[in-house]
Amino acid sequence: PLDRAELVARLHDALRDKRFHHVLRVEQTAIKLAKQNNVDVEKASIAGLCHDYAKQRPDEDFINEIHQKGLDPELLNYGNAIWHGVVGAELIKDELGIWDEDILNAVRHHTTGAAVMTPLEQVVYMADYIEPGRDFPGVEKARKITNANLGAGVAYQTKQTLEYLIEHNSPVYPKTIETYNAWVPAYR
Ligand code: DGI
Ligand code: FE
Ligand code: FE
Ligand code: FE
């Protein structure tokens, strides 16, 4: 398998500068959250680095992958925002040789979350949201909540994202609703 330096080099090739630096910050944030929550630090590093590997691929790469791997055809109704995680995990497997299903699931679920998420998946979902380059109303609150309680952070992000999507008349991927139902009432 690729070591960290080789992985960083592959990410550097795959991503524009701004996105590459986001990925490095997500890695560092994921490592910190992993230490705070007894999560495997190496897996957090790899998942943090890889989570947006496919973000800048053309739509046709995702569409081909959906057909070739027999993924849910419902995916065809969405776009890059959903594909780069769910379908991107398949590209990571094919092109980076990462087969660890914990890591792949953390990539698959980093945008929408899921009703059931391992601590590693929660760490990557939250690291992407609160990395130090993020600057949106509520991000400081999100950081505070997440550092106090990882699951409460998951609930907070999920509610904020759903409110944002509805406010902008955006389609909501069904998994996002499942995440809401599983996490938000539980932390009420
Ligand atoms: O890839 P990043 O920009 O680092 O962040 P991300 O993967 O968490 O989010 C990518 C985009 O996906 C972001 O603009 C919010 C959007 N998104 C999250 N959940 C849904 C969604 N878009 C749609 N249409 N439906 C969702 O359920
Ligand atoms: Fe992403
Ligand atoms: Fe995210
Ligand atoms: Fe990201």
UniProtKB/TrEMBL annotation:
Top-level lineage group: Bacteria
EC number: 3.6.1.41
Protein name per its UniProtKB record: bis(5'-nucleosyl)-tetraphosphatase (symmetrical)
Matches recorded under SMART domains: HDc (SM00471)
Listed GO MF terms: bis(5'-nucleosyl)-tetraphosphatase (symmetrical) activity; metal ion binding; nucleotide binding
Stretches of the chain forming a coiled coil according to its record: none
SUPFAM superfamilies: HD-domain/PDEase-like
Species: Limosilactobacillus panis DSM 6035
